[in-house]
Design a protein that fits this description.
This protein is α/β, with parallel strands linked by helices. Helix content is 51%, strand content 7%. Strands 1-3-2-4-5 form a five-stranded mixed beta sheet. The protein has a four-stranded parallel beta sheet with strand order 7-6-8-9. The structure holds iron/sulfur cluster (2 copies).
Length: 409
């Protein structure tokens, strides 16, 4: 038996009750127990004990997991599925050979591009060129699928280091700019900072911050994720901040788990805990009293980004904010908490399942008759917008910050 890669005690918390099955998107789609939370936990334990080999078949079931953590919300035994999954993937990346295409896709095309804004800018330019009708036939289908996810009008804007609220300040908050957000959704970052200013806070966006590490943590690169954590902690800890605010759900859940990520690092453990304790999602920070009801004919619905709803347990706050503005024009989305298939870079590494879940989300969205779908994560925005476009729908997808700044904009 090799060195344990998952915490045996954490895995034994699963009592195989099956209450998580109906919450698991991949189980809902395949009906295969190996694609369910308890099936995967069983596989992790079997691989750890050597009862099951690490091979194409077993890795396949772990790869197909979205990491959405809906199973954690459903689980009455408090199983820390995200922790088990991250450590399993970290182990599999060292033990399993994926072949050249998946290795290129994961280690180069995704990990060497997404966390680096300038490389991302270059990728957007190349994507636009490759999408031109005259050369599209030369472009491989996997690249065309990735291109279809790109926003038509990305807003490339960085934030100033300090944004003053302009009135008597109630204090200062930090803001995590992210790596995808300033390249594709710069306007959303600016809207978020304006909302924080309107709530009476100065906003600091310190230099030296970088990728939150979510991309690495979710793909079995825990050491790289730890490096990102140390960089961000160092960038923010010199400042005297009430909180550190983030507007991207996937990044927020990783930032809130730095304490756990660096739990075995004696030099950083406490600093990581202090950092994570101060992290707030934008929707936790804003108050509904800031947003009076607005007259409009547009109907609005809300899609729960998995990493806001499940690891962070934030579902009421964004709804309350949207409802404050929309009133009875708000329509609840069926299966709002089921993943849209984006799941970080999952829609690139697992396009088939991602498309099935995208279609499921689009069917649910269209059933609401809404004009606007509000959400809180850039990956969800890209995935849902691409699905709506494919379906020929005119429904718009808006980040909650953009919706709150200009509800009909
Ligand atoms: S993960 Fe939780 S809900 Fe799912 S089978 Fe195990 S104990 Fe039950
Ligand atoms: S993280 Fe999501 S996809 Fe993976 S087992 Fe849990 S519910 Fe299923």
């Amino acid at each position: 038996m090799s060195k344990p890669f998952i915490d045996e005690e954490k895995s034994l918390a699963c009592v195989h009750c099956g209450l998580c099955l109906s919450a698991c998107p991949t189980y809902l789609e395949t009906g295969n127990e190996n694609d369910s939370p308890r099936g995967r936990i069983y596989l992790m334990r079997a691989m750890q004990s050597g009862r099951t080999p690490i091979n194409e078949t077993t890795v396949r079931h772990i790869d197909l997991c979205l990491g959405c953590r809906a199973c954690e919300t459903a689980c009455p035994s408090g199983v820390e599925y995200g922790n088990l999954l991250e450590h399993t993937r970290d182990h599999l990346e060292r033990q399993h050979d994926r072949g050249w295409f998946q290795t290129f896709l994961r280690r180069i095309a995704i990990e060497q591009v997404f966390p680096f804004p300038n490389r991302m800018r270059l990728a957007l330019i190349l994507g636009r060129i490759a999408n031109a009708q005259i050369i599209r036939w030369l472009v491989p289908s996997f690249a065309l699928k990735a291109i279809a996810l790109l926003p038509e009008n990305p807003s490339d804007r960085t934030l100033p280091q300090t944004s003053k609220c302009g009135t008597q300040s109630r204090g200062s908050v930090g803001f995590v700019e992210g790596c995808i957000m300033p390249v594709m959704f710069g306007d959303t970052n600016h809207a978020s900072v304006r909302l924080l200013n309107q709530s009476g806070f100065d906003v600091e966006t310190p230099p030296g911050q970088g990728c939150c590490g979510a991309l690495y943590a979710h793909s079995g690169q825990l050491d790289k994720a730890r490096e990102c954590a140390r960089q961000n902690i160092a960038a923010f800890e010199k400042l005297n901040l009430e909180s550190i605010v983030i507007n991207a759900a996937g990044c927020g859940s990783t930032l809130k788990e730095y304490g756990e990520l660096l739990a075995d690092d004696a030099d950083w453990r406490e600093r990581a805990r202090q950092f994570s304790d101060r992290v707030k999602d934008l929707t936790e920070w804003l108050e509904t009293s800031q947003f009076p009801a607005r007259e409009s004919k547009l109907k609005v619905t809300y899609h729960d980004a998995c990493h806001l709803a499940h690891p962070q347990g934030i579902t009421m706050e964004p709804r309350a904010l949207v409802k404050a503005v929309a009133g009875n024009r708000f329509i609840e989305l069926p299966e709002a908490e089921i993943c849209c298939g984006s799941a970080g870079s999952y829609n690139l590494t697992e396009p088939e399942m991602a498309e099935r879940l995208q279609q499921r989300k689009i069917d649910n969205l269209l059933s609401t008759g809404a004009d606007i779908c509000v959400t809180t994560n850039p990956g969800c925005m890209l995935q849902i917008q691409a699905g709506l476009k494919k379906a020929g729908s005119k429904m718009r997808v808006q980040h909650i910050a953009d919706y709150l700044i200009a509800p009909d904009g």
